[in-house]
Write a structure and sequence with these properties.
Rossmann fold, 10 strands, globular, 2 domains, alpha/beta
Length: 292
């Protein structure tokens, strides 16, 4: 006969069994920023992995056979779209996956970047755009895991409130920068949506992809603009070779304002382990360089 203590222990195990037995939804995100969004919306119901990890450049990423297996194993694959992952269609074909490929940026008004007028895939650089990402991810998770129909919308609503607070913070911080100082040089054209949303002009020697190298003419043009417009700072990026920006800073005498995070988060111990941290870090760097 079971003792009272053993009976209570058995009851606890029975109550805990449904949660323990629940298999988490396997979700694969193409890069670290998307992975963070999925974790916030999916919570404990999802098992999230990413293809392109922290401090890594999705523009020049080369998928491996192991990545094809990750795609094949996933129940849902979340991509940015807008041409950001040029390697994605080949990887999906190689994997043989039948999982839905969800484009998180679907519904975004696509911006153009630089003199080339290329479509800009970096839509997450506006908190308002990320609200569209959140809705698309939420709906994809519900479709794949209907049992989470209450959890995913609740998590999404909580995260949307954080995005609203972030948006207001950025607006207030940029408003404190004198209008004539709201120009900087960044490595590649990754901040067009930030510029449109918050009013800081970004000038870059590279196009929307880090695959394209800046020509001597591009660099000369940037140097001329820095001198003519009295641009106060140039910024490095965590995914780009710093030597080009260091050369521009040296030739113009303009200081390096710090490091911006454009296309990737940092590791957990870095300055930008989450999307919210990434945006706050960037704004802190910009205001520190431009207000003085």
């Amino acid at each position: 006969m079971l003792s009272r203590r053993h009976l209570l222990a058995a009851m606890v195990l029975l109550v805990a069994w449904p949660a323990a037995a629940q298999e988490r939804l396997k979700v694969l995100a193409t890069f670290s920023i998307l992975g963070d969004l999925v974790k916030n919306i999916g919570g404990d119901r999802v098992d999230v992995s990413t293809l392109v990890g922290p401090d890594s450049d999705a523009h020049v990423y080369a998928p491996s056979p192991a990545d094809a297996r990750k795609v094949a194993d996933a129940k849902v694959v979340i991509s940015n779209g807008l041409g950001f992952e040029g390697w994605m269609s080949r990887l999906v074909r190689a994997s043989g996956s039948k999982a839905p490929i969800v484009v998180a940026a679907n519904g975004i008004i696509v911006g153009k970047a630089g003199a080339s007028g290329e479509a800009d895939p970096h839509a997450w650089q506006s908190a308002a755009n990320v609200k569209v990402y959140v809705a698309n991810i939420r709906d994809a998770l519900i479709a794949a895991d209907p049992a989470g129909r209450d959890t995913y919308p609740a998590n999404a609503a909580a995260y949307l409130a954080k995005l609203d607070a972030l948006d207001a913070e950025i607006m207030a911080a940029i408003a404190a920068i004198p209008t004539d100082r709201r120009r900087i040089i960044s490595s590649h054209a990754a901040f067009g949506y930030f510029q449109e949303a918050y009013g800081i002009e970004f000038i870059a020697p590279q196009g929307v992809s880090t695959e394209s190298e800046a020509s001597a003419r591009d660099v000369a043009r940037i140097i001329t603009q820095i001198r003519r417009l009295k641009i106060p700072a140039v910024f490095l990026e965590n995914i780009s070779d710093p030597r080009l920006m260091q050369r521009i800073a040296q030739e113009t005498g303009v200081r390096i304002g710090g490091k911006l995070y454009s296309d990737a988060l940092t590791g957990e111990k870095g300055d930008a382990p989450t999307y919210l941290d990434l945006m706050r870090h960037n704004v802190k760097q910009l205001t520190a360089a431009l207000r003085n």
